[in-house]
Amino acid sequence: MSNPASPVKNPLADLVPEIDAALNAALAPQEGCPPELNEAMRYSLMSPGKRLRPALVLMAAEACGGERSEAIAAAVAIEMVHAYSLIHDDLPAMDDDDLRRGRPTCHKQFDEATAILAGDALLTAAFETLATGIPQPERAVRACEVLAKSAGRSGMVGGQTDDLLAENRNERHNLAWLEAIHRRKTGALFTCSLQLGAISVGAQESQIASLTDYARDLGLAFQIVDDLLDWEGDGDEMGKQSGKDAARGKLTFPGFIGVDASRSKASELVTAAKQHAELFRGTGQRLSQLADYVLQRSR
Amino acid sequence: MSNPASPVKNPLADLVPEIDAALNAALAPQEGCPPELNEAMRYSLMSPGKRLRPALVLMAAEACGGERSEAIAAAVAIEMVHAYSLIHDDLPAMDDDDLRRGRPTCHKQFDEATAILAGDALLTAAFETLATGIPQPERAVRACEVLAKSAGRSGMVGGQTDDLLAENRNERHNLAWLEAIHRRKTGALFTCSLQLGAISVGAQESQIASLTDYARDLGLAFQIVDDLLDWEGDGDEMGKQSGKDAARGKLTFPGFIGVDASRSKASELVTAAKQHAELFRGTGQRLSQLADYVLQRSR
Q1: Cβ of B152 and A128 within 8 Å?
Q2: CB of B183 within 8 A of CB of B159?
Q3: Which residue has the higher pLDDT, A216 or A231?
Q4: B192 within domain boundaries
């Protein structure tokens, strides 16, 4: 049994340089693209971050026995979608945030029109990256399908819509409803990341299914830990205004079931995620480490 | 020689019912998609319109000897991208329009957050439609690539960005610069429409090249005619506040080179477009009729 007090090594750290190099290359200047637009896209895409989603893509590719280089296009694509979603979520008409990880949000650094357009362009670039960066047409088209379904009206955008609607209406909901929001708002891109990694290396369907199970459990655990960090006001860790979610009545796990029950639930989910990762034996080791690392953030 | 006074039959009219049926089916309710979001997407996608871009997709498919049914997914996808671009362009931070074709714009009918999300979801759905609706993986992935490049940072979004930047800065530009804006802002989706139709039916590269030439000329002619209609304040035809482009100092062809020279230029471009359409002989007849029809709108 691992000692909960001993820090788990960050399994993302050694993947970040190769991810950042690929992100940087993906937004090289291009004829026809206004420099102001490219700068706003780069500002958001290259902002310091954990690169969790692209790392999940690469880890899934490795778990399925492939090379990380085969999945780097999908890793870039998922970070583009993540960056676009943050830009649009931060807009005044949406969450109206001025800071993200201690830096001005895109519409504060540039302006609102540029932020909307940079988000649009990043979302579009994600599909271009999949279509041009995965050489096998069958894999590329499936990757486009999975990304679109995960990010679209019944996935991430749907979850964000329901979240905003609930906030505006001050509706009372139950835990199942909160989980359904998170399953789409955060979980959909988690699941998509792992599936894209697998699809990029031509994985078997059974491998994709195990990664989907892993993603579902880890994604919810990650969200609960995020809620806990916000609830406890750990401003340094979050890099945004602490407790802001709670202050504006946003639904969170600790708000619903309390801090202790939230911690227990995150722990159970991490244990379940690790069981799915263990199906891959040695190649799933990073996924297993990542699950421990996610839980550790909440301590 | 055709008599300029005799009205040209609208070659789009008999395609509209099959396009509208496909658009309607594409946004059927879906589990996980909030009804409010779906309603906003439908409001914009199904708003009355000429369906010019999807019709171009179907006409290109026919010109290349294919069936319209093979290209209907691409027709839906391009109209989704067009609808998303109108929603985002109309936002207060962008062109700030309250009306489009006599109806409230999406953010007036719903709210700003819903409009941003509906646009995002339509853009995403366009790629899902291509990936799932074109059965041959090679064609589907190429369609995704072409759509992304046409709609993205060096295409439509890039053109919109430059247009807004010029407006904000009150910059003086030359005609070549105005054409470069339109080539991306309007022309990119025109070209994409014809290319997608051709790709959907597995056309030859030489056919795609001819359609690209046709699109370039017709797209610019269409934009000049649009500018002329706005300039002359034909409110009924445009269904939006007449002369508004001119009032806010937006760059237009008649503003640059005058009404007569704009009319001549549109006429020359239509003649050139028809020559490209004639390379397809009988199957290109609709494309030829369309060119005449576009010019007729300006008379």
Answers
A1: yes
A2: yes
A3: A216
A4: yes
Q: What is the pLDDT of residue A154?
A: 97
Coil, helix or strand at residue B265: helix
Kindly tell me the burial class for residue A120, based on how many C-beta atoms sit within 10 Å of its own C-beta (0-12, 13-18, 19 or more): buried
ipTM for the assembly: 0.93
B52 located within any domain = yes
Given the structure tokens 């760059």, which residue do they identify? B251
Per-residue b or e along B260-299, where b marks 16 or more CB atoms closer than 10 Å to that residue's CB: eebbebbeebbebbbebbebbeebbbbbbbbbbbbbbbbe
Count of residues in chain A: 299
Indicate whether B246 belongs to any domain: yes
Cα–Cα distance for residue pair B242/B247, rounded to 1 Å: 9
Contact partners, residue B17, CB within 8 Å, separation at least 6? none
Range of the domain at B197: 13-296
Domain assignment of residue B8, yes or no: no
> CA of A80 to nearest chain B CA: how many angstroms apart?
13
Task: Check residue A255 and give its pLDDT.
Answer: 87
- Cα–Cα distances in Å, from A161 out to A95, A185, B93, B115? 11, 9, 20, 10
Q: How many residues does chain B have?
A: 299
- Three-class DSSP category at B104: strand
Task: Flag whether pLDDT at A248 surpasses 70.
Answer: no
When divided into structural domains, chain A yields a total of 1
Nearest CA in chain A to B183: A32
Give the integer Cα–Cα distance in Å for A129 and A147.
Answer: 12
Residues of A in contact with B34 (CB under 8 A): 158, 161-162, 165
CA distance B149 to chain A (A): 7
The minimum CA-CA distance between B67 and chain A, rounded to whole Å, is 22
